[in-house]
Design a protein that fits this description.
two-stranded antiparallel ribbon, mainly alpha, about 270 residues
C-alpha cells in the first residue's frame, strides 16, 4: 500500500509538471523548467503571506491606543517591498514564458509561517528583568489580536474557575500561560513586531537561496542571476532590522523599555 501511495504521488507530480509546461507561452519560453516555475510560484505565495502579515502590523501600530507611527512607517515600507518583490518575480516569470496562479492567502496562514520562522531562528522570550531570555518564542503575538477566530461546532461549556473570553477562545489564566498567551497591555509591541518581521525576512532569504540552488540544478543561469541580485538587497533589509532589534533589546522590560521604544519610534518617523 505504501508503494502504491508513493507511485500515486509521483504520477500526480509528473502530471502537474506536464500541465504547467503545456500552459507555457512557447514562443518565448526557452530553457525554463516547469519545476523552476513552480518553485518561483511558491516564493510569490510566501511573499504575499509576508505582505499580509506586515499589513496587519501596520494597521496595529496605527491604532489610537498603540500610536507608534515610526514603527507603522517601517512596516509599511517592508509591506510595499514584499509587494514589489512579488511583482518583480511575476514579471520575470512572464518574461520567461511561464505561468502564475494565485491561491487565496489568509492571515492565519501568514501567522503560521511567522511561527515556524521564529522557531527556526530561535527567537527568544523576554524575561521579567531583561528583554531576552533562553526560552524560545514560537508565537507571533500580533496574530492573537488581529486574526479572526475560526468557527467551530458549539460544544458544552465546562465550568472552570477564572475563565474569561480572549479572542473567541475560553481559557483560564493558567491555560493562557501554558499556551504562551500574552495580554496586549503587557506586550512589547515594537520589539516583538520587529522580531517577527526579521524572522519572516530570514525565511524569504532562505527561499531565495533555495531558488538559486534550484536554478543551478536546472542549468538556468538567468534565474540564478536574478535571485542573486535579490539576495543582495535582502541582506541590507535584514541588517537594518537587526540593528533596530538590538537597540530595543538593550532596554529592560520593567524599567525603561517604554521610554526607549518611544524614542526609537520618534526617530523612525523622520
Amino acid at each position: 500500500m505504501k508503494a502504491i501511495g508513493i507511485l500515486f504521488f509521483v504520477l500526480m507530480f509528473v502530471s502537474s509538471s506536464h500541465q504547467i509546461e503545456e500552459d507555457f507561452v512557447t514562443m518565448v519560453s526557452q530553457n525554463f523548467n516547469p519545476k523552476m516555475n513552480s518553485k518561483l510560484e511558491q516564493h510569490i505565495l510566501h511573499l504575499h503571506k509576508q505582505e499580509l502579515a506586515l499589513k496587519a502590523y501596520e494597521s496595529y501600530y496605527g491604532r489610537s491606543d498603540v500610536d507608534l507611527p515610526g514603527l507603522k512607517k517601517v512596516m509599511k515600507e517592508l509591506k510595499e517591498r514584499a509587494h514589489e518583490n512579488a511583482l518583480e518575480i511575476t514579471t520575470f516569470i512572464n518574461a520567461r514564458g511561464g505561468i502564475i496562479r494565485y491561491p487565496a492567502v489568509q492571515l492565519s496562514a501568514a501567522c503560521d509561517d511567522i511561527g515556524r520562522s521564529l522557531t527556526a531562528y530561535h527567537v527568544t522570550q523576554p524575561s521579567t528583568t531583561t528583554s531576552v531570555s533562553l526560552a524560545p518564542r514560537t508565537t507571533p503575538y500580533i496574530c492573537q489580536f488581529l486574526t479572526k477566530p475560526e468557527k467551530s461546532e458549539p460544544t458544552k461549556k465546562k465550568k472552570v474557575s477564572g475563565i474569561k473570553k480572549f479572542l473567541g477562545f475560553l481559557d483560564s489564566n493558567e491555560d493562557q500561560e501554558k499556551r504562551g498567551v500574552i495580554q496586549r497591555q503587557d506586550w512589547q509591541s515594537g520589539l516583538y513586531g520587529l522580531e517577527d518581521a526579521l524572522a519572516f525576512e530570514k525565511s524569504i532569504n532562505d527561499g531565495l537561496l533555495a531558488l538559486t540552488k534550484a536554478a543551478v540544478q536546472f542549468t538556468d543561469p538567468l534565474t540564478r542571476e536574478h535571485m542573486e541580485v535579490m539576495l543582495e538587497k535582502q541582506a541590507d533589509v535584514i541588517k537594518r532590522l537587526g540593528d533596530l532589534i538590538t537597540r530595543l533589546r538593550q532596554y529592560k522590560q520593567d524599567e525603561d523599555y517604554t521610554l526607549g521604544e518611544y524614542l526609537l519610534d520618534q526617530e523612525l518617523q523622520s
